[in-house]
Structures are given as C-alpha cells and as structure tokens.
Design goal:
Length: 314
C-alpha cells in the first residue's frame, strides 16, 4: 500500500537541519550530482509541467511540478505537484508526497549546506528577497545555521513582506521591511523570488556576505547581476546543471563578462569544506534545484514516517 505524506507530515518528520544533514550524508556516500538526469519542461495553458526523475541505491522517484504563474492572483500556490517514491530494486511504489511541501523543504536544505560552508560564522544580518514559502523556509534555515539577529525583508507585495517580518519577529529576531539597498549591510542575502531581472546592485554586497540565489532555473532569468558574479566566488550544485539552466551565470557568460570557469566549486565540495580563514569577497551560491535532492529527502521523510509508525508515534 502506498503511503501518503502531506505537507504537515513532511514538515513534522524532517527539520531543515536534518534535511541538510541527509544531503551531506548522501554526498559523502558517493552520490554524484553531475550525473543527475536533467529536468524536462512541458508548456501547458496554465504554465508548465516539470518532470524530475532520479534513482540512487535503494531508491527511485519522480517529481511532477506544476508552475502556474496566475495562481497567486487566485489565492493559490504558484508551485504545485507531487512526488512518487519507488523501491529501487523493484520499482514498487512506496509513497506519494506533497511535491510543493517537499520542494519547500529541499531548497532551503540545499542552501543550508552552502551556509554551513560559506557564510561567516558570526552572520547576524540577513536580507530575504521574496515573501512566499521559499522565503519562510530560507529564513528558518538561516536561523538554524547562523546566529542571525536582524532580518530585512524585501518584496514587491508590502502586505506579504510585513507578514514575513512579523513572523521573523515572532522567532526572536529584529525584522523590518526594507529596500534592495539593505544588502550593503548583509551577512546573508537570500534570493527567493520569481524575478527575471536582478534584484539589487551587486556592487553593494560586502565581501563578508554569502548570497544564495534559488528562485530561477531558466537560462533567461536571473536574480543577481553581472557585477556580483564578477566579484564573487561562485558555487553551484553541479556544473552541468548550472551551465544548462542558471541564467544568473549564463547571462554574464553570454555577455563575455565571465567564462564558464567562473564556477569555483560545487555542493559536493561544500559538504566537507572546512571554514574559511578570511572572507575578502562575496560568495555566491546559485541553486537551480536538482532531482537527486528531492529523491534523497523523499527517502529520508519516508524512513522517518516508517520509524514513527514502528514506535507508535503519529
């Protein structure tokens, strides 16, 4: 019988930090992000459908994602979908997970791995661009990984930005709605938007800052500008995926401002990277989202659910 795991169960069974730990363990066990299967995108009247299959060791799975740009105006989520987890050796279906909830867990967990390796240990000021589920998830990841005391929220919708700022205040940090220039005083800049053009002036970002850009996965869209890419030590999930999908990098490469060698490292290297001794230029982590990440975390959620049933927990 296939187990059904909704959003509440996913959030209860795996914390952002535990999700980051699961990704690190998989990388340490030899998972190679460069070998990941590319996602496919199919245009449909409401937007597009994305298919993201993966297989590794005891597991296989596929996430089907719906991206419906018109949904927010209807009071609905822009990202929808589901994840079907299979037993690897037999391809027997094991679980169906809420795809949006899994994505909301996965992307901050990937960023958390980058924060552990690339953010200054005393990072106290974060700027969050966006006000949707990824903004909330990245705020939680930042608070779990660094001693953040102040948060600036930057978003197009003032009411939604204020809501996120109040949420951050309820977590014990000072929070306010700000403008893009807040990056000038940031230790962490978390870009969680559907923007297609740069969100801020990359020249303002201090050398001690980590910028994580997670909102786009198409070659013609970006959240950060060429100036930041040229200044930064750039890390990605996998070179193959970034140089196929990451407009944040592909646009500056197309301009001739940087070459493909602008990528200094990947998440596999970050998983066991020792803390840096100096931070003389910004670090940029560009994430496009990869199917192996969903597979690792779907399996971790399923294992946690199985363990909980075995101990009688609900």
């Amino acid at each position: 019988m296939t187990t059904l795991l909704g959003g509440d169960a996913i959030a209860r069974l795996l914390s952002p930090s535990a999700a980051a730990d699961a990704l690190v363990r998989a990388l340490a066990d030899g998972l190679d992000p460069e070998a990941g299967t590319p996602r496919t995108a199919t245009p449909v009247p409401a937007g597009e459908l994305l298919a993201m299959p993966a297989a590794w060791r005891a597991w296989a799975g596929v996430k089907i994602v719906g991206v419906a740009p018109g949904n927010p105006a209807r009071g609905l989520a822009r990202i929808t979908g589901g994840y079907l987890l299979f037993d690897g050796p037999t391809l027997r279906p094991l679980a169906l997970l809420d795809g949006a909830a899994l994505t909301a867990l996965r992307t901050p967990a990937v960023t958390a791995v980058a924060i552990r390796a690339l953010a200054v240990p005393d990072a106290g000021v974060a700027v969050v661009f966006g006000s949707g589920p990824q903004a909330y998830g990245h705020l939680a990841a930042a608070l779990a990984e660094r001693p953040v005391k102040r948060v600036h929220v930057v978003a197009r919708d003032r009411a939604r930005a204020e809501r996120l700022a109040r949420h951050a205040g309820g977590l014990g940090v000072e929070a306010e709605v700000s403008g893009p220039d807040a990056v000038a005083g940031a230790d962490l800049v978390l870009c969680c938007t559907s923007a297609r053009e740069p969100l801020f002036d990359g020249r303002l970002v201090p050398g001690r800052a980590l910028v994580a850009a997670v909102g786009s996965h198409t070659p013609d869209a970006r959240e950060v500008d060429t100036a930041l890419v040229r200044r930064s030590e750039v890390h990605v999930e996998a070179r193959s995926a970034a140089l196929r999908e990451a407009g944040d990098l592909l646009i500056p490469i197309g301009e001739g401002a940087v070459g493909e060698d602008c990528v200094a490292g990947t998440i596999a290297g970050l998983a066991d990277r020792p803390p840096a001794s100096s931070y003389d230029r910004p670090r940029l982590f560009k994430s496009v989202g990869m199917a192996w990440e969903d597979l690792v975390l779907a399996a971790a959620v399923y294992r946690a659910a199985t363990d909980a049933r075995g101990t009688g927990e609900t």
